[in-house]
Amino acid sequence: MAHLSISSAEFQKGFGRYREAALREPVTITNHGRDSLVLMGVEEYRRLKRCERRVMGLDDFSETDIAAIAASEAPAEASAFDDERL
């Protein structure tokens, strides 16, 4: 996905244009030359929220849960995700 980067001053001057651009691609808004905000369409935001993961600690699992996880095996097709990184 393409990525547009603009200063906060430019964003203020051209809000309408960048609002429309954000529906097609993320728009990074910089402040003093540093990335500050990212403007994106609501559909992209919702997609990212669906990808959010809840992190659980070991204390969140019962002994039965831990035994079931230890005994489980990932299906062969899951190996397609071995190289994914966050």
TrEMBL record:
<protein>
    <recommendedName>
        <fullName>Antitoxin</fullName>
    </recommendedName>
</protein>
<dbReference type="InterPro" id="IPR036165">
    <property type="entry name" value="YefM-like_sf"/>
</dbReference>
<comment type="function">
    <text>Antitoxin component of a type II toxin-antitoxin (TA) system.</text>
</comment>
<dbReference type="Pfam" id="PF02604">
    <property type="entry name" value="PhdYeFM_antitox"/>
</dbReference>
<dbReference type="InterPro" id="IPR006442">
    <property type="entry name" value="Antitoxin_Phd/YefM"/>
</dbReference>
<comment type="similarity">
    <text>Belongs to the phD/YefM antitoxin family.</text>
</comment>
